[in-house]
From TrEMBL:
Its EC number is 3.1.3.7. Residues 227-310 form the DHHA1 domain. It comes from the Bacteria. This is Bifunctional oligoribonuclease/PAP phosphatase NrnA. It comes from Bacillus daqingensis.
Length: 318
């Protein structure tokens, strides 16, 4: 079944003269890695084809790949491929028209967009799927493509630690690591942080409050983030910075934005997405997001989070 979709995709690529590859807005290494990695594989297999990478260039990810200028005319008759993007609204860049649209993604389906869809929620990352495509079709993987795909896989799996890491992930990583890219310096580039972010992390570690149920909370007001010179999006990226704390069960970052207080919720056991849904959010059982519109509301949310921690502890010992 999967092989059929892969051959169908590769046939479609083979027939196209111009291929434009998109990915989601606010990209991460899996988005850019799968986009540029696929581009590299196609360009290597078919040097005469025009392959373009579309979307806003993300400064912190140019060590992986830059983006191309794509004009509206270039979409005429082009094959468009979108990687790592569950719904059309999250695609970075306008797609004025296309001959054929292909979706390649590992997120639970939100929109069934595209003429050909290859969605595999078992895959750790879209990069792992692109590796599979190369493996099944037997096309040549260059060292540059291997570096890009390895970057995305290791990012989405937390350096092969998260529960989405499977034997297939390790096999793909092993195969990619046969290529001559510098894994050590790649990891260094992926882990790089800024002084403002480092200072903010120091603040968070100092200020985190933990209850006896193992529930923890951090407040990040707009004023506070401004004083550190970081955006709310950057601040949210360190939500896991104390996840190794002994006795910790679930925690939340209250990140104040212009029109709401965003709640970034994480867990090491208690299921938290049901609670997130009560507060205009949702997500995965161990990682969710929600919104509050006042600090009083964050208090009642945290009370409920403490209950969730206490109940799941009781259930464990029943
Ligand atoms: Mn991904």
């Amino acid at each position: 079944m999967t092989k059929q979709v892969i051959f169908n995709i590769w046939d479609t690529i083979e027939k196209a003269e111009r291929i434009i590859i998109h990915r989601h807005v606010r990209p991460d290494p899996d988005a850019v890695g799968s986009q540029a990695g696929l581009g590299e594989l196609i360009q290597e297999a078919f040097p005469d084809k025009i392959v373009k990478l579309a979307g806003e260039e993300e400064q912190s990810l140019t060590f992986l790949s830059g983006m191309d200028e794509v004009t509206a005319e270039e979409y005429r008759g082009a094959l468009v491929i979108v990687t790592d993007t569950a719904n059309e609204a999250r695609i970075d860049g306008e797609i004025p028209e296309s001959d054929t649209l292909i979706k390649i993604d590992h997120h639970p389906e939100v929109d069934a967009y595209g003429d050909i869809q290859w969605v595999n929620t078992e895959a750790s990352s879209t990069c792992e799927m692109i590796f599979r495509l190369a493996d099944v079709t037997g096309i040549k993987v260059t060292a540059r493509a291997a570096r890009l795909l390895f970057a995305g896989m290791s990012a989405d799996t937390g350096r092969f630690r998260f529960s989405n890491t499977t034997p297939a992930t390790f096999r793909a990583a092993a195969s990619l690591s046969e290529h001559s890219f510098d894994r050590h310096s790649l990891y260094n580039e992926m882990d790089v942080t800024t002084l403002p972010m480092l200072r903010l992390q120091g603040y968070v570690l100092q200020e985190v409050e933990v209850t006896e149920e193992g529930a923890a909370k951090v407040y990040l007001t707009r004023e506070r983030m401004e004083s550190f010179g970081v955006t709310s999006r950057e601040a949210a990226s360190i939500v896991n910075c104390f996840s190794n704390l002994e006795g910790l069960r679930a925690w939340v970052f209250f990140v104040e934005e212009e029109d709401q207080i965003r709640m970034r919720i994480r867990s090491k056991g208690p299921v938290i997405n049901k609670l997130a849904e009560k507060y205009r959010g949702g997500g995965h059982p161990m990682a969710s997001g929600a919104s509050a519109f006042s600090w009083e509301e964050t208090d009642s949310f945290f009370d409920e989070l403490r209950h969730v921690c206490r109940d799941s502890e009781a259930a464990n010992h029943a």
